[in-house]
Amino acid sequence: MPAATLDAFLNSYLGPPDELRSAVVATIRQLTQAATKIRNTINQGVLGAAFAGTRSANADGDIQKDLDIFADDIFLDAMRHAPVALYASEELELPVLLDRQAPLAIAIDPLDGSSNIDTNVSIGTIFSLLPATGAPDGNPAASFLQAGVNLLGAGFFIYGPQLALVLSLGSGTHVFVLSTRLGTFVQAYESRIIPARTQEFAINAANYRHWDEAVRLYIDDCLEGTEGPRGKDFNMRWIASLVADCYRILMRGGVFLYPGDQRKGYRQGRLRLVYEANPIAYLVEQAAGAATDTITRILEIEPESLHQRVPVVFGSAREVARITRYHTEPSAIGERAPLFSRRGLFRA
Ligand SMILES: O=P(O)(O)OC[C@H]1O[C@](O)(COP(=O)(O)O)[C@@H](O)[C@@H]1O
Ligand SMILES: [Mg+2]
Ligand SMILES: [Mg+2]
Fold it and tell me: Which residues does the record give as substrate binding sites (predicted)?
């Protein structure tokens, strides 16, 4: 039986007194307030005029939009009122030291799906919570260079038709929706289970010619549908907001790919390990799905730098495992008989 509200859920998570747990809960409460502020700003209908404008490039060379900066400011400010030692953001080159004594480190993508701001498509905020580690005077990035298996919790807000929070504190992946009538987040689902099998994939197919052979073969096989080696038809979706693609997969299954490709700067794909791939992988695994960099489990990768990119595949567990086999043992893929090794549909 789902707890009725986010508050009830957080209270039940608290259990016996424990510094880390109560820090996690206090931080999530601050995050929900900040996300509600962002949602209210978005709802004022001024996005096109005031927020879709661009500024300079961020630490990683991406063009920042005004809403990226606005969201970053709001979340950074919120974290000053939370038991957070360090704040690392997509929009800032270096982590910000907030309170040396505090037990947590937060990594955040304050505004995910920036290219969708002026098109009124869902966007979001992705976060992960880690134990603050290392000597207080040491490298402030050290806390963020822990593998994702060390996460204490992760989640994302999605600013869509509903303001939803998808959250895991290590025991299932739960969905809360802001009830404007009750003025609080209400639990919509106790814990999501991503079906292991799927007939739906998400990828930016415009990059087909830049992909490695394994990715092309996988997509070719899906596209051949009932006439190809998979023997079933596939549907395709690509929202270009990671939060929205992930939300759909949590609701009905599917597989998402943002592989590395041959474009300049895209050898490791587009998404960032610490504040995009890790939290999404954590949520997906907690919902019985899987997440890899095509071969290795995302949560086991030791980050080497805060803004590093990583190829990402996540979603329905059997499909994710199949994509790994296309990379590691393509000849052993049972269905890939010689008949099917012809040129793909998209190929010249
Ligand atoms: O425009 P592309 O290459 O399809 O990339 C879309 C991907 O880039 C992202 O927008 C990257 O995130 P940011 O908007 O936070 O930079 C993801 O949300 C999305 O999955
Ligand atoms: Mg993002
Ligand atoms: Mg972003």
Answer: 112-115, 204
Distance of CA 310 to the CA centre of its chain: 12
Distance 194 CA to ligand 1 centre (A): 22
CA of 190 to the centre of ligand 1 (A): 28
ipTM comes to 0.98
Nearest CA to ligand 1 atom 14: 113
Using the atom order of ligand 1, give the atom closest to the CA of residue 114.
14
Cβ-Cβ contacts under 8 Å for 100 (sequence gap 6 or more) = 85, 136
Q: Provide the 10 A C-beta neighbour count for residue 47.
A: 20
- Separate counts of helices (H) and strands (E) for the chain: 7, 15
**What domains lie within the chain, and their CATH numbers?**
6-189 (3.30.540.10), 200-340 (3.40.190.80)
Interval 117-158: pLDDT, tens: 889 999 999 999 999 986 555 678 899 999 999 999 999 999
User: Cα separation of 97 and 215, whole Å?
Assistant: 41
Q: What are phi and psi of 79, to 5 degrees?
A: -70, -15
Instruction: Name the helix (H) or strand (E) containing 220.
Output: helix 213-223
Residue 41: how many CB atoms within 10 A of its CB?
18
In the three-class reduction of DSSP (H, G, I as helix; E, B as strand; rest coil), residue 106 is classed as: strand
Residue set of the binding site: 90, 109, 111-115, 204, 276
Determine which helix (DSSP H) or strand (DSSP E) holds 301, and give its type and residue range: none
Binding residue ranges for substrate:
112-115, 204
